[in-house]
Every structure is written in structure tokens, then in C-alpha cells.
Specification:
With 380 residues, this protein is an alpha+beta fold. The protein contains 10 helices and 22 strands. It is globular.
Length: 380
């Protein structure tokens, strides 16, 4: 695309900056137009309608590209109908250019647009930032060919993600079938405090003042622990003295639970690499009895389901539960089902997780393909 002429986006698209109407015109009764305020309304492609506006000020038309212009800057969706847009969004209306081609161009430039964000309270971009963005302008048939190819690659990515979601949902559905609702406990299982089953320990506190750089080791933080998955794509390093390494070294089968952020998010460490430690933002759970290592798989899905059903709120008198302290964790009551059933679930869990691992690799490959096609179409 480097030999293709470029034009400012404002020459081929109309840019409509959003404006939020007074709140008294918002409603849930479907009066007026669907109202989108920002990135929080976005899904993968199309926004979710939750609010309406009876007196819209700025309007997007069907097939306008909606772009988030205020923290975060850059994410896009497509309007499925005429709608009201608030200050967090702009509508980009293609004129004489293929709108899908324009959409993929904006997705390619999401990071560069985010870099243009300005503001002390929150980052934002303005009309000029969008209008001045230069877009390659091949002939319309070529634009459509590029968009069609990218659309197929994007659909493949979505199919891969959907397959993973279905497998993870299956894990939870079988759990419910075997053990029942983990909060209501309709099957009447015995309950036990987490501290009776696990050694529970927070990781090392991050302290930049004590960093020497002589004993740097990789460690996991909150963002590395996703639901039922350890993400090692972005690891940080800090000093772990020899006296600390045994205390904070992770071993295969350790359960990691987020102490803050998305409280309770849980995954199992499976020696993704040989030597890794963990930060204070995480609890490490290690079974006290090696004979119950099959409890870990059950516990991971137990937390996933129970937290969605409000388990943690029952441990706190606060309106919001922002931190899961070690004291609270030790007191957490969890189901203690029949051991034979736990072993059976572990076998099922292992089988599905092997499938999910293959699905994640397929997703990774499809992400690489999509990224390569975007670069081929729009890079300098």
C-alpha cells in the first residue's frame, strides 16, 4: 500500500463529534433513539443498547463507524441503527469510500490514535485528530477486496474465541450438574473453610526503593492471572533474594487468586516456565494434603461460578468488595463434595482444558493472520 496515494480522513468521511444531552432525556423505555455514551457500550462489532434518549443532539446513522474519543481512545464499533451519541464517541460516515475498509483502517490505527490523546483528567482526541489521519485510497473495487479479506480473517478470530467460550461454559455447566449451585448448595454438601484445605499466602510486596537489579526474577501480578488461564505475554521482574525465593517460588498445581482488581479471579499455575514468583496482589493457595490435589480443578471453577453469583459479597458488609484479604480468604466457606466425584471432575476438567489449549493456539494463529493482513493493507 506504500505506493497508493493517501488523503486525510476528513476528505472522504464526515466526522460527527458526540454530545451528551441532559440526563433527564435518558430512559430505559425505548423512547427516542438508542443512546451510546462510550466504549462501555461496545462489543466486538456492534454496541449493546441499554439506554435511550428522547431528545438526541448528535446522531449517528446506520453503518456509521462509532469510535471512542475519550479514555480509552481508539476502539470502534458499527452503528446498527440510527442512534444518539454522547461526548465519549464520534461517528465516522464514509462518503465515496468503502465503510468496511475505513473501519479496518481505524482498527489498524487504534494504537496511534490512542497516542494522540491529550488531557490531564482523561485522555481524549478531537475532530482535527481524526480528520487529519491519512488513509490510503486505492480504487473502490480494491478497497472492497481488502475489506472482504480482512472481514473473513476477523470472522475466523471471532469463531475461535466463540469456541473457547463454549468450552469454558461447558466446564461450568458440568460443574453445576455434578455439584449444584456453589452458593445455594442445593445438594447439601459439607462445607469447609479454605484455610483448612489450603496454605494461603500473599506474594512479595513490590518496593522500588529496595530494588538493586542483582537478583531479578520474573513474577506474576494481577493482570497475569485471568480466569482459568495464566497470561505470561507481559511479565515484569523484581529482586528476589535467595532467602525469599523458596517462600515465593511457584510450583506446579499452585492456585493463584487475585486479591484486588477483579477480586477472586482464579487460575492454576502449570509450570508455564521453570522459575517464576508472584507479587502481593495475588494469593497463592497450595493444598495442605497432597492426596487432595484433585481439589484444585474443582476450586478454580467453583470460584468462577460462585463469584458471579455473589459469593464474595456475603463475606463483606461493604457495598463494594475491593480487596480479598488473607483473613477473609481463610474464612471462605467452600463446598467439600464427595472425593470420588471430585476425581471424576478432574478427569473431565483435564480433557476440556487440553481442548481449550488447542483452541487457544488456533486463536493465536488467527490473530497473527489478521494482524499480518492489516499490516499488508495499511502499513507504510
Amino acid at each position: 500500500m506504500s505506493t497508493t496515494k493517501k488523503v486525510p480522513l476528513g476528505k472522504v468521511c464526515e466526522i460527527i463529534m458526540g454530545q451528551s444531552p441532559p440526563s433527564e432525556y435518558y430512559n430505559k423505555n425505548k423512547e427516542g433513539l438508542p443512546f451510546f455514551q462510550g466504549k462501555t457500550d461496545f462489543n466486538e462489532i456492534y454496541p449493546t443498547i441499554t439506554t435511550y434518549c428522547s431528545k438526541p443532539q448528535k446522531v449517528a446513522e446506520k453503518n456509521d463507524i462509532l469510535i471512542s474519543v475519550r479514555a480509552p481512545v481508539g476502539p470502534t464499533n458499527v452503528a446498527t441503527t440510527k442512534s444518539c451519541i454522547g461526548r465519549g464517541l464520534a461517528a465516522i460516515r464514509a462518503k465515496g469510500i468503502d465503510f468496511k475498509y475505513t473501519l479496518f483502517f481505524l482498527r489498524f490505527n487504534e494504537n496511534s490514535l490512542a497516542g494522540k490523546g491529550k488531557g490531564s483528567t482523561f485522555e481524549a482526541i478531537n475532530r482535527e485528530d481524526l480528520e487529519s489521519l491519512e488513509i490510503p485510497l486505492p480504487s473502490l473495487p480494491i478497497q472492497q477486496q481488502i475489506a472482504a479479506r480482512l472481514e473473513k480473517a476477523d470472522e475466523l478470530r471471532r469463531m475461535r474465541r466463540y469456541a473457547i467460550e463454549m468450552s469454558e461454559r461447558f466446564l461450568q455447566e458440568v460443574f453445576i450438574d455434578m455439584f449444584g449451585d456453589p452458593v445455594k448448595n442445593p445438594k447439601g454438601w459439607d462445607v469447609v473453610e479454605a484455610g483448612e484445605i489450603f496454605h494461603i499466602q500473599l506474594g512479595k510486596m513490590l518496593d522500588g526503593k529496595q530494588r538493586t537489579g542483582h537478583n531479578l526474577r520474573p513474577y506474576l501480578r494481577n493482570t497475569n492471572v485471568q480466569w482459568n488461564k495464566i497470561d505470561i505475554s507481559d511479565l515484569k521482574f523484581m529482586d528476589f533474594e535467595e532467602t525469599e525465593r523458596n517462600k515465593f517460588l511457584l510450583k506446579r498445581g499452585d492456585i493463584l487468586v487475585c486479591e484486588g482488581g477483579e477480586v477472586g479471579r482464579t487460575a492454576i499455575w502449570n509450570n508455564e516456565f521453570l522459575e517464576c514468583y508472584y507479587q502481593k496482589a495475588l494469593h497463592r493457595l497450595r493444598p495442605k494434603n497432597s492426596n487432595i490435589d484433585f481439589f484444585s480443578e474443582f476450586f478454580t471453577i467453583y470460584m468462577m461460578i460462585a463469584i458471579k453469583k455473589g459469593l464474595l459479597e456475603e463475606l463483606s458488609s461493604q457495598v463494594t468488595f475491593t480487596h480479598f484479604t488473607a483473613e477473609k480468604f481463610n474464612e471462605l466457606l467452600i463446598l467439600n463434595p464427595d472425593q470420588g466425584l471430585l476425581k471424576e471432575y478432574k478427569k473431565f476438567y483435564s480433557h476440556i482444558m487440553n481442548l481449550i489449549s488447542q483452541q487457544r493456539e488456533a486463536l493465536r494463529q488467527s490473530e497473527l493472520l489478521f494482524s499480518a493482513l492489516l499490516n499488508e493493507a495499511f502499513s507504510e
